[in-house]
């Protein structure tokens, strides 16, 4: 078909060049955003008198009809069109004739595609935020249910000190809460409308950019037309935030994989989120966790690709920027899918409390508390540290836990030990006496849980349901 820009050219584009240049294969994804932007543009053209009210109303009605037909599958977006903008405009002209040809008045494909990508990314920000909130609700539920579930805390993948499952989950709550904060920050910075920037230098038509921005729920128009068509900072920020989300999910997945192993047996993953082996009937594999861990690289790749694409581009628009879409779309879908699936896996996971307790109790996680006990008896900390080190060596040799030693055995290592050592190094005491905010003690955790509950009740103060009048 003839190109909408073909007037300057005397012969058709080579087919291979056309295919290489075309973006319809992937930008069809934001047909709703393209039509939404066109409707706002046409309403504005009617308001300022560039189009008559009859022309504006006819175009808007036809655009809505095209969107409904595409959504219902009655109108198919085919590869005969160069891009989604050409598809919409060509179908409009087919139906309205010369009136349809007025759609593009005062607009360039440069500011049109800049708007479409911004609208689409803005929607992704909202959807990712909603999924993160659901995940946080799941984590908070686990925290409330496992205030007393004692487990080992780790450093260097070695048992360090006893904590609770609630405390461990709380660490991930903080991570994903920060991820939501990043979504909010990105939204605030990106929510300005580039439409009206033209190709790079604005337009001589008396456009009302404030009206157009308001119709689409933006805070206002972008203030520099060159930046308006060439800015992809918001997308880089979003992909960076998505990469951080995936990093958090991958860390969490790694722990689930470890906890699910035969050696740990801290958790049992629901059958719906596991698979078996084609040859080993005993296997129950943590495939979802492993795939989330593996797909993290895809999202990292999208971020690095866009940064590399943008690093050498002079102002203003260049065709390189068409490469902002395919990998970004894949990253967006990947992140949303991973959050949703991980949330489902976590919500149905069963925790083996007895196994967790036994692991904490058998790993000398109370050694620090034993040293603190000696310090409270007047022993200098450095001496106490050495005494407990010798005590642990003795326990390893005897294959016993600290609290399994007799008082005589303990006194043989240090005469300072008394009967109250057993209470001092019990798992419950080790956890419960840690009462500072942020620590695993039940009182501190209840305070944190209440704070997190209030956080989840807060509404994000944006209009998510803006309508084009």
TL;DR of this structure?
By secondary structure, this protein is mainly alpha-helical. The protein has 19 helices and four strands. The radius of gyration is 30 Å and the shape is elongated.
- The unreliable regions are 464-469
How large is the radius of gyration? Answer: 30 Å
On the 0 to 100 scale, the average pLDDT is 92
What global shape is seen? elongated
Measure the end-to-end span: 34 Å
> What is the SS-derived class?
mainly alpha
Commentary on this structure:
- There is one protein chain.
- The protein is 60% helix and 4% strand.
- With 469 residues, it is mostly helical.
- The chain has a two-stranded antiparallel sheet. The chain has a two-stranded antiparallel ribbon with strand order 3-4.
- It is elongated and about 100 Å long.
- Mean pLDDT is 92; it is low at 464-469.
Provide the fold topology.
Layout: H1 15-21, H2 24-27, H3 31-47, H4 53-72, H5 84-96, H6 109-145, E1 150-155, E2 158-164, H7 165-190, H8 209-215, H9 225-230, H10 233-260, E3 267-268, H11 287-310, H12 326-347, E4 350-351, H13 353-361, H14 367-376, H15 381-398, H16 407-413, H17 421-424, H18 427-432, H19 442-457
Antiparallel strand pairs: 1-2, 3-4
Helix pairs in contact: 3-4, 3-6, 3-8, 4-5, 6-7, 6-12, 6-19, 7-10, 10-11, 10-12, 11-12, 14-15
Provide key terms for this protein.
about 475 residues, mainly alpha, two-stranded antiparallel sheet, 19 helices, 4 strands, about 5% strand, disordered C terminus
């Amino acid at each position: 078909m003839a190109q909408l820009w073909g007037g300057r050219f005397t012969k058709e584009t080579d087919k291979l060049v056309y295919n290489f240049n075309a973006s319809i294969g992937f930008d069809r994804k934001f047909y709703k955003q393209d039509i939404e932007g066109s409707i706002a543009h046409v309403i504005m053209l009617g308001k300022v008198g560039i189009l008559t009210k009859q022309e504006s109303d006819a175009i808007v009605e036809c655009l809505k009809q095209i969107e409904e037909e595409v959504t219902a599958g009655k109108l198919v977006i085919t590869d005969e069109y160069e891009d989604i903008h050409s598809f919409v405009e060509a179908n409009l002209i087919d139906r309205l004739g010369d009136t349809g040809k007025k759609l593009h008045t005062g607009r360039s494909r440069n500011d049109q595609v800049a708007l479409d990508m911004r609208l689409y990314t803005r929607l992704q920000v909202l959807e990712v935020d909603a999924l993160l909130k659901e995940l946080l609700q799941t984590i908070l539920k686990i925290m409330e249910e496992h205030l007393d579930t004692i487990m080992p805390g780790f450093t260097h993948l070695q048992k360090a000190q006893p904590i609770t499952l609630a405390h461990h989950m709380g660490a991930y709550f903080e991570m994903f809460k920060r991820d939501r904060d990043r979504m909010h920050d990105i939204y605030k910075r990106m929510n300005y409308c580039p439409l009206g920037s033209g190709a790079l230098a604005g337009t001589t038509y008396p456009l009302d950019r404030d009206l157009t921005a308001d119709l689409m729920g933006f805070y206002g128009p972008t203030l520099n037309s060159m930046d308006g068509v060439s800015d992809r900072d918001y997308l880089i920020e979003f992909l960076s935030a998505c990469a951080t989300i995936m990093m958090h999910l991958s860390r969490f997945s790694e722990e689930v994989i470890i906890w699910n192993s035969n050696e740990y047996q801290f958790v049992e993953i629901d059958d719906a989120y596991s698979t078996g082996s084609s040859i080993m009937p005993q296997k129950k594999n943590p495939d979802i966790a492993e795939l989330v861990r593996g797909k993290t690289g895809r999202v990292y790749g999208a971020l690095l690709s866009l940064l590399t694409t943008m690093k050498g581009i002079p102002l203003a628009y260049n065709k390189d920027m068409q490469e902002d879409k395919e990998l970004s779309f894949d990253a967006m879908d990947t992140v949303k899918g991973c959050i949703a699936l991980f949330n489902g896996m976590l919500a149905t996971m069963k925790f083996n409390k007895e196994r967790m307790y036994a692991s904490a109790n058998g790993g000398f996680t109370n050694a620090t508390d034993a040293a603190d006990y000696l310090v409270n008896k007047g022993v200098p900390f450095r001496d106490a540290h050495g005494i407990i080190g010798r005590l642990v060596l003795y326990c390893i040799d005897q294959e016993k836990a600290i609290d399994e030693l007799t008082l005589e055995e303990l006194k043989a290592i240090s005469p300072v030990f008394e009967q109250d050592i057993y209470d001092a190094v019990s798992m419950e005491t080790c956890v419960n006496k840690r009462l500072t905010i942020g620590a695993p003690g039940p009182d501190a955790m209840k305070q944190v849980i209440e704070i997190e509950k209030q956080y989840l009740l807060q509404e994000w103060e944006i209009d998510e349901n803006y309508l084009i009048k």
